[in-house]
Amino acid sequence: MTLPAGTTLGGIAAAQRPARQRAGSPTDGWWPWLFVLPTLLGVLVFYIWPLFQTGYLSFTETGPFGGETWVGTENYAKMLGDKNVGLALVNTVVYTVIVLLGIPVAILLASMVNRPGLRFATFYRVLFFMPYIAMPTAVALVWRMIYNGDFGILNWFLSIFGIDGPYWTSTPGFAIVAVGIVGMWSSLGFSMIILSAGLKNIPPDFYEAAQLDGASRWKQFTSITVPLLTPSIFFVTIISVINGFQLFDLLYAIMGSRNPAMQQSQSLVYIFYNQAFIHNNRGYAAAIAMLILLVIGIVTWFQFRMQKRWVNYV
Amino acid sequence: MSSSQLAQKRKTNTGFSPAQRGTNNSRAHIVLAVVGFIMVFPFLWQLIMSLSTNAQVMSVPPTFWPGELQWQNFAAVFTKVPFLSQLGVSITITVLRVLGQVVLCCMAGYAFARMRFSFKGVTLGIILSILMVPSQVYLIPQFQIIQNLGLLNTVWGIVLPGIFSAFGVFLMRQFFMGLPTELEEAARLDGANPFQIFWKVMLPLAAPGISALVIITTLWSWNDLLWPLVVTTYAESMPLSAGLATMQGSVSTDYTVMMAASIMAMAPVLILFIALQRRVIDGLAFSGTK
Amino acid sequence: MKKKNIARLAPLGLVAALALSACSANGGDEAVSTDSKATISYAVWDENQVPALKQNIADFNKEYPNIEVKLDVTPWSQFWTKLQTQASSDTLPDVFWMNGPNFQLYAANDQLEPLTGLIDDKKIDPANYPEALDTLYSYDGTQYGVPKDFDTLGLWYNKSILEQAGVEIPTDAWTWDEIHAASKKISDTLGDQGVYGMTTSLTGGQEGYYNSILQAGGEIISEDGKKSGYDSPEAIEGIQFWTDLIADGSMPTLQQLSDTTANVWFTSGKSGFFYSGTWIVSELSEAENTMDLNVAPLPKGERQATVIHGLANVISSKSKNKAASEAFVTYLASKEAQTTQAEMGAANPAFNGTQTAFVDSVPHFDIQVLLDAQDYAYPYPISKNTAAWTQLETDLLPAAFSGDKPVKDVANELATKMNEALAKE
Fold first, then answer.
1. Which domain holds residue C94?
2. Residue B90: is it exposed, middle or buried by C-beta count within 10 angstroms (0-12/13-18/19+)?
């Protein structure tokens, strides 16, 4: 039953690996720049330059419509003493973790739905991708109705089992979890698109070999699908973390800005938005933006460092 | 082995032996059906609410079937939004963004995955860093750039920042890194230059990745709200997402009409997705190889 | 710190003033003529009012056929984000809607064009509009906005629920005691059907606690906009009014009101009373139970009081078509334009005497009650950075309404923090 590890699969991978370290010039000359330059220029103009402006603003006290005064690190000092910022960081992490829990589910579902010859596969795909297709504001509205403490179908469902459901979107603690579940629900389709593309890339010979060895489906899943899917899994993980840390739209649309639980449930980007566009405090908002960049940067850097341990590139 | 040979091999080979293909998938069906129902339930519920009265929406226990269907909730949407003209804007900006991203991201993604050049890590780091900043942060500076370029209220003004995508570059990089290297080596030995290798050998193999990028960019562009609202000033230059958001603001408490409006906002991409689903996901995977 | 900016800007303001006077010396006389050509933009947020606004533009074009007015409708949730982005890039729309909380911010930062010229030329007469609104849109003695419409508050009630619970129809003699007792009776009688006596939004002050604070004889902010009024015994009483209603079940909890907003409770026949304003008329007239609904004056506390607020049309100081914009705003300020708004049921117009058309637009409501409320109305409380302390209200007051903290403690904390915020303006 067991797959003779290191023979079939390992053999294929090992055979391919030396090919990468080919001899020749250390670089490919100017070709790479031809490929990269258009994107690089666009990114520099439309994103990096604004980012530098934001960095500058974070050291200023900025009027609502521009006109800034240099205040040094005052905004950063204020940020460190702002307990809402710490709370927002915790909320953001909780949300991100909930969304990440969706990835293993997406891997399983993607591998099932991509089974050759599975009937109704198209139908299932449509079901799974629907949440991802929907407009976020529209989706939030439906979930608000589902979560409604007095009239929502969720609490009605729970009441069948004798459970007295909470006011999901207006109770501190519950609210961020409720938003996280919607986040997981709506990103599952995204993960499945990426993972399905990755699955298409797995050479069929691997499965044939495994079958000849008599490996079970689960064994094939854990020793072929998952390892060879790791570049896609890595991608989905990174993007989910980055998106998770940028939680704003869903939170705003599901809870609303005047929710009594909002102060305990706000995310980092929510504080940024509130300071920049509601309180017209763009200097302080810029400092929070820099914090968001720093936190996501560290987490992403760490993930890239770790990828060597678990991501297989052919 | 040439690319077309490889494609041929893939086409005939589904990855499972005929024997296994016949095996029982019932457990998979149970799991997929249960999870699928959970995934789709909010939409069913939305559809039911859009055909109910407001009193039914607020009833306890829930009204699972409205009895008399309230189609006028949908009619109310049509009277409020210039649906067709905004649909045109939505389609135009989406097509331009998708084309732009596919070209730019495939090229850059390939270079980062397979080419060797100095400052590669730094360049990739710069591009990826923009992913880490929430889009609201860029809003005012990007608006000022578009204004200085004189592109306010134009299709290009809506499209422009969005054709450069760090996400797309990263996606295509990961995808290319997952592809086998032998083909490239073979082409290189045959004397092909890097562009020929990219265009003739690698791009066709990247079809599943490209189709994923196409789907994701289409949906993002279709649903994008804040940026089009800020760079356009008049209803005729707005896409559908912005038009429907404007409409929602006017019926903020009429749940049933809002549900109908959200269904209509989703409908075009949903129909497109269902119609092209096979072709996009399965077909594209082979079409590039002819 | 904000002062620093102002000081820095002061010389600029002077230059601007000089430039302006130079302008009026040169080109002031060549006021826009009926065949002037221009295109101006007009930014608004309420899709419901678009038909009436289009009618206004069409009528304006009868006189100025070559001034094209392009309507820019942005939903409320993105309106101020967009306006701030535009203001930061000197691309504000030529003419746009303004509300009380944002007005001083835009006026103080030189984004708005003074209307002094139009008033001096007798094209616009402030005496035509409620005084409270003229005051709302004046900054440092200069008028920047022409009132477009106005809102006061009333006590809306559901006749059928009142009847079922055996509660009398409210009269203009009602006080806090009557409304509380009546609400309690409804909740007690019909509570098993999920019906509450009172539902009112407590997320902002305008519908609920601003009114009760004023009725108790207190104030939200001092008249000069420099000091918080929250630490007065009257303000505390005004907040306590709502805490008491929630405490004995006369009113749903804040969480219930967050999940299901007050207007939805009311329009779906699950509440007997509802404090709301003129803006709710069109929504309630289209509700499924509209024939059961009507409005009475707000119950009195120590005195009779309501908040009055309204929108204004303002001109951007950076407009490239000021003459055309002024002509358009002058038209929007006219009796004719505001009557059109009223007749089409878009809004309760600000021009004195034109409101009759609005009253007649929904005959089964006593809308006159809301117009009469003008006589005892107090201006909506604002300062230069209103958003800073309304956020404090949103953050702090829920603990008082829910009874988690004593109202007095919360009010004092709110006053302290609000005074800090005001000191920074």
1. 38-151+309-361
2. buried
